[in-house]
Amino acid sequence: MNTVDLDAALTIIDRDGRALVAAAQANPTAEVAACPGWSTADLAIHTTSVQRRVAHWCTIRAAEPVRWPDHEPADPAAPWDWCRQGLALVIEALRDIDPDEPVWSWTDRRTGGFYHRRMLHETVIHRWDAEAATGTPSHITDAVAADGIDEITEVGMRFRGDGSPVDYPDGHLLLVANDGPGRWLLRSVDGTLMVGRNGDAGDRADATITGPTEDLLLHLWGRPTGPVAIAGDPDVATVWATIAP
Q: Which of 14 and 163 is assigned the larger pLDDT?
């Protein structure tokens, strides 16, 4: 993990996981803008299902994808205890597995450390979704957001769970944080995603997005963003936001 250590990651997973479930339980029928057709209850069930799957894989040190138990709540209309139990399971499993221990994943990163980081950002982004659907989402810190941009460009924009290829746009996109030193240049070379990190001001880009690190992360995840400025080709900025799964 680049900027968030394991203890901090587990603290955030626990805090944001609880906040996600609380927001969904308070308003279970609210629509989630980033997940068309989903309510906040659906979002909580999805997130917990992922957490339980990862907890099972990490616990058994899976060498291949295997089905996990209790992948659906007994009562989808009232899944809250099931969700909180799933959160506790994944935290326990993540705490127990060493970052270097081998465990299967759908990517080329197959260690416990991959899931420490993946569960952090899975929980944070869906906590944001749930709170945005029911009120005002709390801030994603600059450190977590910067690591989230690194993680989505290293994993989410490169790998699909079903193994299907990822198609990238032709235009180059430059992300510039105005609340920190972060700069990311995204481009495709012969169908391979290339990411320049913290390049110089001469980076060539067809579109540049400047804004708080949190909003740059949300843009890559296709979420509504706040105070960002787009220079250059707005279509390039838009199409890169469709790459995340």
A: 14
